Amino acid sequence: MSSSPPLIELRNVSKVFVNRSLRQRSVVYALREVSLTIARGEVLALVGESGSGKSTTAQLLARLTHPSGGEIWFDGRAINRQAGARELRQYRRRVQMIFQDPFSSLNAVHTVGYHVGRPLAIHRLVPPGRALAAQVETLLETVGLHPGREFVSKFPHQLSGGQRQRVGIARALAPNPDVLIADEPTSMLDVSLRLDVMNLLLDLRTTRKVSMLYITHDLSGANYMADRIAVMYRGTIMEEAPADVLMKDPVHPYTRLLLDASTADFGNGPSVAGPLGALDPSSPGCPFYPRCPSRMPVCSETRPVSAWIADEAEHRVSCHRYHDAESPKTGRDAQPKV
Amino acid sequence: MQPVLHVEGLWVDYFTRGRRLRVVQDVSFAIERGEMLGLAGESGSGKSTVALAVARLLRPENAAVGGMVRLNGTDFLALVGEGLRQTRWKSVALVSQSAMNALNPVINIFRQFDDMLTAHGYTDAVQNRHRAAELLDLVDLPEQVLNRFPHQLSGGMKQRVVIALALALHPDLIIMDEPTTALDVIVEREILSKVKTLQRQLGFSVLFITHDLDLLLRLTDRVAIMYAGQLVETGPVGHFSRSLHPYSRALVQSFPSLHQHASDRRRGIPGAPPDLSHPPAGCRFHPRCVFVADVCQTAPAWEAVSEDPLIAVRCSRWKEIRDEFVSTVD
Known about the structure:
Number of strands of chain A: 12
Structural class of chain B: alpha/beta
Largest sheet of chain A: 8 strands, mixed
Oligomer: heterodimer
Helix content of chain B: 25-40%
Strand content of chain A: 15-25%
Number of helices of chain A: 10
Low-confidence stretches of chain A: 325-338
Low-confidence stretches of chain B: none
Helix content of chain A: 25-40%
Distance between the termini of chain A: 28 Å
CATH class of the largest domain in chain A: Alpha Beta
Radius of gyration of chain B: 21 Å
Distance between the termini of chain B: 38 Å
Shape of chain A: globular
Shape of chain B: globular
Strand order of the largest sheet of chain A: 6-7-8-3-9-10-12-11
Strand order of the largest sheet of chain B: 6-7-8-3-9-10-12-11
Mean pLDDT of chain A: 86
Number of helices of chain B: 9
Mean pLDDT of chain B: 90
CATH superfamily of the largest domain in chain A: P-loop containing nucleotide triphosphate hydrolases
Number of strands of chain B: 12
Order of helices and strands of chain A: EEEHEEHEHHHHEHEHEEHHEE
């Protein structure tokens, strides 16, 4: 529900992984009916803990895996499984991924120049030879590796973690994408280097008008980077709002706990109601029910739907405290007591 | 009163590929009874090596350790053999970074307690079971967990078990090396709140090591910051809002705060931490420092700014930096 039409969109996307062993077959819902939109030039942060499904979302958008249900739309068209090779190549040119681990995402036997030049060659964007070399140098300087010429012939092991991640960013930028998917791009970097990589991504967003899905487990990083934040828990979007609204006025009990855990002192304050046990995938209720400090009987029985909060722009929440099945009351008066 | 842990001039050399590499140099700090000291630094700064050296877990064939480490007044570096084995766990326990993997996967939780208690002379299995159940209760785990195997527990539960194990012999000092890095923030908060409560209840001291300075400033009583194998600044938590070392200042600044949007742009620290086989001459931070001057070509001393509370800093220009603070506040 952004003001401008979405450039890329997940519509009710689900992803199911099936574990088959000799005796049993178990099903894991990595994503359940997830809907997200990103407008042109917009940064959406997806926040969640490990196992929440945020990396699965990234893989779906990068077309590294297929949705089990729902659709992915890009630039006004559904990108479905039957997409032809040409269409898929085009999509992959325009939607690029930055990986979490700058150590394993570069091939140790290839130079920096090879990594950054490859996408240019694959997508036939620049003729091989001097033009390609020049373009690679320009890209390296765009991501802050000066002078580009000196980095071209280096191997990954000759670079620091921060420099490697910049090579990863240059590689993603090479085909001049419209969307960047950044999956925890700073979590493996030294703390003193993180902010500069974040600032680089923000600069690229301004200069190149790229859209970005910024995936993180860190709310303050999300707030620093993003226009909007979506909070994910166990494959479900629990709450989504403009960044400042979410930080100032979170309504979902899970978001509140997350915020609280990142700010409050230790040894006091509210805590979760229950341990993080294994969730029964057939459980009909809210995925946060076992840990929720403000749960109600209905929460174990039916899954709350994600719905927009009345009188608030672009703020939606998936919680029975807001969307009572019987009498739909939404807004301030339905505020849960946490 | 005598501090529980007193470290003075600690150094550690690693033997690597036929070379000797100094990874920790001139580290001095003390931890009082019941106090929690946070040790912060980036990866490779030597903070985990300090933990291993203080716990005497570095093998002599891999590393040389020198300087002074006193535990309750006794020279801990001089202990060998049975004396060392008995002191470990009883006086100092370690909760390591890989606590998830610190449990033996093929024995149940009770056996993990029983093995350790037996090794320290508690051989009555019935009493050990009772003691293990008590310890689990301290960290809010039910007795049934004793019959489980590590793979049947969640990461947070395993971490609680490891903390319960560390508490078993009433240690004076628990060293926690990034104990919650692999856990999500809500579980982290729960476990660290528990540690704080237990600390008040039982009175042990904690050396808490992490790269997450923001966490330390909320959790601990005092903080020490390491850079390239050396301590650069120490002081009570409140001191770090006006810290005197340019590196600590930059480190505090380098996390966006929770309510800060990019419209209020912050800068990271330029450059990268040095390679310890060729540390920069003089101050080790000077190539990345915004306050760099000629004097920084000479290695700065570890200098006390105040004795009570103890504030110490390793920067030749700390007085100028402090005066600048005063003038900006006025």
